[in-house]
Amino acid sequence: MNWFASLPLAISLPLFVGGFVLVSCLIVLALRPAVRRIVDDAEQWDRVLGHVIGTFGVFFGILLALVAVSVYENYADTRHAARQEAGQITALYRGTTGLPAEVAAPIQATIKEYLRVVIEEDWPDQRRGELPDASLGLVDRLEEEVHKYDPQDVQQFAEFQQLLVTFDDFVETRRVRIDATTLELPMLFWVVIWVGAAINAVLIGLIIVRSRRLHLVLAGMLALFIGLVMFTTADMDLPYQGSLAVGPGVFERVSDQIEQMETGR
What we know:
Elements: H1 9-38, H2 42-95, H3 101-127, H4 136-147, H5 154-179, H6 187-206, H7 212-236, H8 249-263
Helix pairs in contact: 1-6, 1-7, 2-5, 2-6, 2-7, 2-8, 3-4, 3-8, 4-5, 6-7
């Protein structure tokens, strides 16, 4: 389901949903003659088919809803992790302003370099679905520079402790942001969803409708909605690659804020 990640939304959405509707309508056209030949009692057929469609619709609808909610939660968590990491790196930078200049300067320089690498190297890797590692060395360097500080009094010790807590939170949030690169639904879920969509199209095609045009309109409208739900779910299932991808905007704003802080000094 990630074949459309590299396509613009204006192309991928009509292509996916349009193809989905087209296939559903073709199934209807293929089944209409067969249904007319094999059905003797249209009333009984519609009654039995109505029960089948109703039962299937409940289970298929629940499946789509649960999958969509799960994917959205993962997408929202990924976006929150990026924002939280950016906020923590900002807090880490501000926390160095109370340190001696010879201690704060290398830490601040590493933080600025980290932001640059995340924006210019980590995010392109994530857009390709690859786990980024360009910024890992900077995290190690930052840890070494923070631990080089030796507080001399109670106030400095308290500031140093807060700095360590912020750094630990930053490392944990960074791990969540990176792990989301490969976060996606298992293939088995998509197999079940596609099989369910195919069964739904077949069941709609088995309904006896005198007007072929009306039958196609009904099948097309239902296929349009299901196709939109599946496309949106698949798009959000790729938090760094789809058209709704989480971008490095929060890190870019933090980088700009740091430059403004240094300019205003």
